[in-house]
TrEMBL record:
Name of the protein in its database record: MFS transporter
Keyword Transcription regulation appears in the UniProt entry: no
Residue intervals passing through the bilayer: 20-41, 53-72, 84-110, 116-134, 146-164, 170-192, 204-222, 228-247, 268-288, 300-320, 332-352, 358-376, 413-432, 438-456
Major localisation: membrane
Annotated Gene3D superfamilies: MFS general substrate transporter like domains
Organism: Actinomycetospora lemnae
Membrane topology note: Multi-pass membrane protein
Pfam families with a match to the protein in the record: MFS_1
InterPro entries from the UniProt entry: MFS (IPR011701), MFS_dom (IPR020846), MFS_trans_sf (IPR036259)
Keywords of this entry: Membrane, Transmembrane, Transmembrane helix
Amino acid sequence: MAEATGSWAQLLTREHRGAVAVLAGGTLMFAIDTYVTASLLPSAVAEIGGQAFYAWPTTLFLLAAVVASSLTSRVLATVSPGRAYLVALAVFAVGALVDAVAPSMAVLLLGRVVQGAGGGLLAGMGYALIRIALPRTLWTRGSAVIAAMWGVALIVGPGLGGLLAEVGLWRWAFGALVVGSLAIAALVPAALHRARAQTSPGPFPVGSVLLVGAAAAVLSVAGLAADVVAAGLGLLVAVVLLVGFVVHERRTSAAVLPRATFRPGSPLRWVYGLSAVLVGVSGLEAFVPLVGQQVAGLPPVAAGFLGVALGAGWVLGEMVSASARRPRPRVLVGPALLAGGTVLVAVTLLTLDGPVAAVLWAVGLVVGGLGIGTAWPHLAAAAIGGAEPEADAGEQDEGEADKASAAVTTVQMLAVSVGTALGGAGLALGGADPVASARWLFATFAVVAVLGALTARPAARGVGR
């Protein structure tokens, strides 16, 4: 059945634009930090030392973010949405300030943990605010705005970090995040003053949080493994922990995921699953610049542009697809486009080389990104409303709805961790041969994308309800 969809103009009316600015700004801070840190880290390490811990700033940041995002629903149930968002911004800003003045790697790592906790809450509350502050007809467009912020960060983050690092001012990048957080905080009181009152927090999901955190930690380490055995072992341990998480969630009343996820016949599990596949496959973009330089012989700048091809396609797909009045076909088409794009790159790596191959890689990555963007806003909107009873949405449990919204980010971050670890394992399979590594990398993601496309139909049943 077709679902009524609001317009972009409605999203920017006086009633909604404040909330949109806040959720977009918070997401942008988290996303920019993710990309800016990678570009300035070499300069930071050269100044403060800690070469042996080079990967830890990113690993600890993502680990803290995964754990914090899983607690979003409890935070929202404890304090008002406006106050919760201010707390998240404050934690994020404090962490960024610690990073900006860090005299050693140990202090920088402490700041990254604090910053990751605040960032995870910001990312989790972005989707929660869509449900709380926007009408249902604007949920899909709100999800597209969040995705667009990741596209902006993909362009601004590396450029900002690289420029400041080049002139010896890498600390100012973290300072800019502090200033940005303060600017967004100034908007929060007016933007979220109409948000609904708090709900009962319920029992603390300690078991689920520990299992999610452990899985994220193992995946982060597996993604850094230097050989396929270590990476594969890490993936296996993480899968066991995630299976344990699902089993625990089914049995406990102190859960992270909404109860509807495990309701017989509910499509919500498929919605989360397909979302995880789309985001997980997007993790290959982190490896594209390396492949572009080592295999195609591209200069760093050209390889960098190749690396953002998938992200650019994602944002473009979101902007176009968010206007669709029949979302279910988009959820079916999107995964097929992603599978086709990744298969094109994988086949090209097996059959061609030189400039023609690089062009086809770019085409495949853009098509794959379009596929993610085509399906993602509708999947996110379906997940946000996934805890509602089919017969009467008015009897919705607000605590369950908060869980459904926050779980979008938790699933997203875990999928990124899985994708990174999977990419590391794919590269390790090729050994010292860059071409073989690239072939294994894209072949692995192509298989996952194809399997994801096969699960699109049951997920589509949960869209546009």
